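Hi, here's the filled form for the chain we discussed.

Project: internal
Contact: R.S.
Residues: 309
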Amino acid sequence: MLELASGTKLVTAVLVCWNHERFARAAVLSVLNQTYRNIQIIVFDNGSTDASRNELEALRSEHDFTLVCQENVGLVRALNQGLAMAKGEYFAVLSTDDIWRPEKTALQSHYLDEHSDVHLVSGRLEGIDANGQPNGLLVPDFAGDVTFSSLMKGNVVQGAAIMCRTETLRSIGGFDESLRIEDYSLALKLTYMGLRVVVLPDICTRYRRHETNWTSRPLDSELREIGAAYRHSPAYQDFYRAHFPQAFWHLVKEGKKFEALRTLLGEPEEWTWANVGRGLIRMCIPYILIRKYRTRKLRREKTKIAGPA
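And the returned structure, exactly as it came back:
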């Protein structure tokens, strides 16, 4: 383990809070307690409606960091605000429901020091629950150089575990505020430009799963936004099929036949029996018949459960 009392290069850490009163103190302390001490810490409270602001203000009275309390401008815009304020050569981010491992900054800043051709370095996440107990999650199952083509098949760059060169971020205009998944879109953009991105095998962050995680819901619309920028790329087929398997079949099954047809004609759907084959057959069956069949089947099941009168 690298344990550096201080570093020669300043690292800017930007933390963003929205209704994390239960977790914010642990998140901020995890940055304050890094083994690497040369860190500029900027914390944004993004219009929290709980007691998060009180927690953060109490912490600021005890420790030296910058606290910005503002209306909810969204995660990505807050990160760009932090980028504008950054004085560090390296830039890292953290949502205040997650926790950095003590050696994260030391490991990643040292790696960037030693590898001048690497523009972004990431690490692995260890999952914890709302009470901070391990939940068995450990991602990604990968370490090494990340390519654009591999990223189009799935994201292995986790936002809570990244560190990027500040100048690199500024040179590309910061985080894309038209997109809501900042880590995946950033990694795709950098690798598409031919810039080197690396995932370290080290566990850098404890990622908290709890009832208000916004990423716990389906992210289809956000992923479509990201993929739209690369529709011209041959790798788009891999992106679409990785994130939207059997999309045509699912749309037909839901009775969305016109949307299913547009998808079939406009997207690189995989022509398999399970997807297009079943879907085309079902397209020919009036949805009203399917609904009647489902109703009758449900009645039969209820009758079986109830038993004879």
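Let me know if anything looks off before we file it.
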